[in-house]
Amino acid sequence: MPTSPDPPPPPPSALSPPLGSAKRGLGVRTWLLLDSTGRTQVVEAGKQAIMRRTGLPARDLRMLDPFLSYPSTVLGRERAIVINLEHIKAIITAQEALILNFKDPSVTPFVEQLQLRIQHFHQAIKPQLKETDGEQAFGNEDELKVLPFEFVTLEACLEAACSCLDNEATTLEQEAHPALDKLTSKISTLNLERVRQIKSRLVAITGRVQKVRNELEHLLDDDEDMAEMYLTDKMLQQNIENFLYLL
Prior knowledge:
The protein contains seven helices and six strands, in the order ββααββββααααα. It is an alpha+beta fold. The protein has a single domain (about 30-245), classed as Lipocalin. A six-stranded antiparallel beta sheet has the order 2-1-6-5-4-3. β1 and β2 form a beta hairpin. It holds the Pfam family MRS2-like.
């Protein structure tokens, strides 16, 4: 379904520190926030604000620091999932996604695709929300027909990271065959150097692929880690407990 263009991003939200703060700008980063309907908002937030919003400890946020080198990571916590895969640096909760490096041109296609997926998710979940009344809201998990928000977003992140590696590998392959053909027909310093550079790039991309693969295999092999990422279920359980506590 065609969607109307998003309005211009509003000014930084209440996540931003007070304008008069003496420490304004210290540790503050700009994030792109996508809510569960696909709407976007640019927000400026310091580390403490993000920690309060997501429940993440400071050490988890360091994994997303662009000035630090951390291995590929998909980390499930109580209220959020941390994604550090290739060019994707994001935090996912049960109701929103925060993208750190959204201004990077290589991330723009991912953001556009993620927004479309979230919009489709919102349209798919609408009938369920209308059909669900008070008592059914606390059960009927078997009737869930679509993935929860966090898994829709996580899937988009994984696909974007894998597509990035796949595209680079395809480009490298297209360059490698002609270079090898030239070297076969004529051994020269120039042709040898081209093949050497391609080999170096191949070694580098192979290492990146292996890191992503290892992280995904580790995740899939650990049932507890997988269950930890079902944020919607944990949020619903918490809502039930809060509701019963008030009775």
